[in-house]
Every structure is written in C-alpha cells, then in structure tokens.
C-alpha cells in the first residue's frame, strides 16, 4: 500500500502531468541509424561496459539461467525514498561504529526514547547551569561538567534505536544544535513536541525531575551528604524554575494535543477491552490516526469493504483472519489499522511479514512517520538489518517489518527467550507465498511455531491470489473474508499478430475481438519489432506510464533499446532537463560508469529495471519513474508483486518468466500493477502472444488460480528437517524416552 510521511512521503502518489501530445509518436530511424557499422560501434561501446554488454536481438529466447528466480528472490533493494534511506544507512553505519567502551549506551536505549531525548537535547546545558548555581564541591562540579559534556549529543545513546527513527532523532539533534544559545525553554518545547502519548506530566516537572535524577546520580558517587544537599538544593531550584518558567503558547497547544491524544488512547484501550460495538472515532483508534491517513496518504474515507472487514465480529474477537481481494483493492489499510490497534490500544508488539526487501523498506519508510506521531518503534528486519532477540522496550511497542526469512529468525529468537507472548499480532502480506518453494516452507514453519507456542498471538494473512483458502483456513484456524472490489477498473487484453482481443470470461474462447492495432510499420521496423511493441507503448507514453514485463533481464535491456531506436525525436524534449539530471546522478553513484544502454534510453524517458541494477541505481530510476520523468520501464518479475508504481498500461512481452510458462497468479500479480488507486483512473494490460502459445494462454486466462501446497516435505533440507532441528533447538520437543517414561 502506498504510504508516506510529512518528510518521507512517497512520491508515487497522484501524478498530474501536463505533457505535450506528440503528433508523431514513433519514427523509423534513418537508414544510417541502422547500418551494421553502427551496430558494431554499439557493440564496441557495450564491450567497454563489461558485463553489461548486450546483443541487439529482441526476440524472446528461453534462456539457460532462470533469472526470474534471481529477480523474485534476489537481494532486490529499495523502492523506498532514496534520500531518506540513504540517510538512515549513513546513520546506522555511524552508530554501529561506536567503540566497545561506549556500548553502555545500548542499555540506555532500552529506556524510553523521550528520556534520551531530554538528556540529549537539554540536560547537558541545563544541568551544568543548575550545578553551577548550586555551588557544590568544585571537584564534583567539574566532574558533572565533564560528564554532562560527554552526554551532549553523543551518537551512542541512540545505539539501539531503530535506524528509521534514529534519523528522526538525528534531525531533532541538529535542530537542537541550530538553536544554539536560545533559551532552555525553547529547547524544552523541542523535546515536548516529541513526547509520546504516555507522557502526560507537565513539561517542566518532567524536565526538572529528570535533571534531579541525572545530577543526583553523579553526586552519589562522591558524597552522600553532598548528594542530599544537592538534591535538596536541586529540587528547590527546580521548583523555583517551574514557578518562574514562562511556557510559550505553542508549547501549551502542543501539550494539549498530546494530552488529548493520550486521553483518546486511554478511551480506545477501554473500548477495545469492552464488549461494546461502539468503535469510537476511528476503529477504536484516536482520531489523530484518521487525520494522519488524510495527511500522509490522502485517504479520507475507508472503502465499504474495508469498513465491513474491520467491523466483522471475528475481527473484533481477535480471531485469526485471511482476506483476499483483487490487486490494488486496498488490503494493506485494513492490516495497518489492525496493527495500530494492537500497538496503541492493546500495547503489544506486531510483526509484519513481506516478501521482498524492497517492499519491507518501502513499508518502513511509509510507517515511520506514523511511529513518530503515535509513539511506537518501527524496526526493519531485512537484508543485514535486525537484532535477535529484539530489544525489549519498556514503554513503547515495536512494529517489526520483516522479510520471510528474517521474520522466521525473529520468531525463533522470541520463542527461545520466552518472549513470544509479547507478539500480539502477525500480519502476512502475499500469503500465497506459503506455497512457493523453500521460502514458502520457511513461512509455513514460522506460522506453525507461532500457532504452537503462543495462543494469544493473532495471525492475519492477505493476498490477491489465493485459491484453496479452506486449506489455509484449516492450517491457521482462521476466518475468511473476500470481495471482488477493485477501485480502478482493470481491462485485460491479448494481442495476437496485429489484433487485440479483450479477455471476457462470458465469451466463447474467453475473449472477444476489440480492435486492430494502428501500426504503419516500415519494413525495417517490422523486422526489428515484430510484436508491435513500439506501437503499443506509444499509444500511452509519454502522457502516461507504461510497464513492459520481459521474460529475462537481457530481454529487458534489448527491448528498451529497440523501442528508443524508433521513438521520434520529440520524446527527447519531454522533461529534458530532469532526464539529464537523472543521467548525471546515475553517473555520480556509479563512479562515472554509466551503463551505455541507460545512457541511450533515458533521454527518451525509457529505462530497464531488473536485479542487475545496484540498489542505488534502482532507487534513482524508480524515483524518476514515479514522478513521470521516465515514462516507460522494461522490467522483469521484480516489479510484479506488491509494488505501487504508476502504470496506465502493463504489457507482458511474452507469456514466460525465463523459460517457464506463466502461472496464473504470476500473471494476475503482473497485470495488477496497472491502474493503481490514487495514481491512475484506469488501467489495462496487454499480453502479447504467438499463435503457438494461444491454447496455453487461453487456459491461463480462464483457469482458477494455483493452489498453495505445503513445501515443508518437498523442500526436505530446508523444510521439515530444519523444522525438526529448530524445534529441538528451541526446546519445543520432548525426547521419546521422556515421553515413554511419562506414560
Ligand atoms: N480507502 C481508500 N481510499 C483511497 N485510496 C485508498 C484507500 N485504501 C487504499 N487506498 C490506496 O489504494 C492503493 C492500493 O492499495 P494497496 O496497496 O493496499 O492495495 P493491495 O490490495 O495491497 O494491492 P496488491 O495486492 O496489489 O498489493 C494505495 O495507493 C492506497 O493508498
């Protein structure tokens, strides 16, 4: 689901473009452009680019390597906002390099962030001031000064804070530094503005109370008498300070808002615990949550199905739930509301399992702003990120967002440390993945372990492509909800030769003739583009966006290049400067080593997108595509599931993923990228097929989705064997002789 925050708002949201219509949509290149000589020159250039060298053929050839596997399960990185994640990474690096002797700070991190915040941003100055006033022993004074100085914005305090939120506190720190010599009161406001909903004490009293704690602990080590004196003096000073303190108006407003939110949460907690049907302002959540959805995502009102689903008795009773709706149906919002209920009202941690690193990062970026506003941690468990067992948080609850593998390790660590009960809710997006190879086996193991070890953990699974739901229901002991709602209509087409057919389940053959493709191709173009891709994409770009799914990475690059060869020069003028900027940035991040294919295609607004790109390259290209600077991606299945990019038209270059014929759920996920709610008002897909594949394609579009079957046994070493070994390791098994003796 599309998410964003004030600072980190996703930029794939509504695109309103005002692009010139291009009279001549595609052009046959001048003969000279296609001479063999040119091809040789290009080949030379490609040779320079080393492994990025590509041949010119655009024919779909089944290949030896299944790069789709690589795409689907590779280390595909981020679709999240570029600059935000880059900063997060930098910060994480910075904090991870904290020397060993300063790691005491990790203990501090288990304390509430608010107190850390206060210590960092204010105490270093205010405490020194207090002690100077107190005229205590000079040595103690110096020591305090020294210690306070060392407490002044040191990075190690944030050692264990999730990186997503470290960034937030880093910004806070810099804003505090910017304040320079401004009054303590202003800094107080800074801290108070980030107070959590649980911290209802008046600002000044918290402030001085904590000063007292902090200073007294230092004095204790020197002299008990001094300590008493100091405490007494300090309290006196604190009270005088309180009395004198002039609270700025904006601080009071902020306080009022915080208090209101806190009260609303208290009411929400009571509502959720009671058997009442009154769900309060926003599904048992404070009205602030509703405001945040309007502010961050532009969601003003829930769809009817979302409301129905959230008010189901089974959901109110926290029964396990599976729900299934078409792609772009808005499934994520329901899961998010249930997660927020768990974090804020029931005060328990939540685990969200997503299929790819990219989607985890996208979600982290989107939900961090909610965490900051509502007072919970958002923790990333993907790639190299994640701590096992997770840090125990005293007050705030954690939302762990994890890939399938990291989710499994997280659950293991919670079982091992006897903390699995702290997990109130587990949400699995793309639940159909449970039937996919060794990754499916890991997901199944994770869920089985939760079911077995924690009776209080609710499990929610969602997907657009489920078939044998009863089996899954039985496994998860879950209720089921489904609807056919899709906010943006998606029209499915097939293209055979130059005829376009609409997929129509009521028609004989499941398709009806729609139109002939308007393509006046020269002989050269016919030869280079027998599938009329150029004609298909130029019906859409540059005014709208288009995704072309290709069976292989190599084919992606070839298709991108081929299309650009036949686009008219007019395309070069569209958002020319921004495209040059993209090229410049790409050069910068790849040390001047820009891929020659991208160098040629980006000026036309076209790029390829597959797992061969570095994560930084991908982020940059996605950003440019999301904002309409690029209007066409040729891509592999990497972009098939769960990604919310704009696409008026999705074209499937062939009914293959590598050399495997498309599965129905892969097909559904791919075409489902077209016409995303909030981005486009209509969507269409065109599957290009050859006569030889016609029969198989007709079956593909009319047969039911594939069933999910357990892979625990099929994937023996990564499945049942791993499960047994880990159950022994987690002491969740009983040796046979113990069992016999018990009998
Ligand atoms: N009530 C709503 N009003 C307006 N927009 C909504 C609403 N609910 C969700 N959306 C938007 O619809 C888009 C698609 O939603 P979401 O990503 O949740 O779909 P999905 O069902 O998870 O799709 P997929 O299965 O393809 O991942 C998002 O941009 C989201 O912000």
Automatic annotation (TrEMBL):
Give start-end positions of Basic and acidic residues composition bias. Answer: 206-236
Which GO molecular function, any one, fits this protein according to its record? ATP binding
GO biological process, alphabetically ordered: DNA repair
Indicate what this protein is called per its UniProt record. Helicase POLQ-like isoform X5
| Lineage, highest ranks first | Eukaryota, Metazoa, Chordata, Craniata, Vertebrata
PANTHER family listed in its UniProt record: DNA POLYMERASE THETA, PUTATIVE (AFU_ORTHOLOGUE AFUA_1G05260)-RELATED (PTHR47961), HELICASE POLQ-LIKE (PTHR47961:SF12)
Q: Does the keyword GTP-binding apply?
A: no
Where the record annotates domain Helicase C-terminal, the positions are: 532-724
Q: Which reaction does it catalyse?
A: ATP + H2O = ADP + phosphate + H(+)
Domain Helicase ATP-binding per the UniProt entry, residue ranges: 312-484
Which residues fall in a compositionally biased region of kind Acidic residues? 36-45
Q: Does the keyword Nucleotide-binding apply?
A: yes
Main location as per UniProt? nucleus
Where located? Nucleus
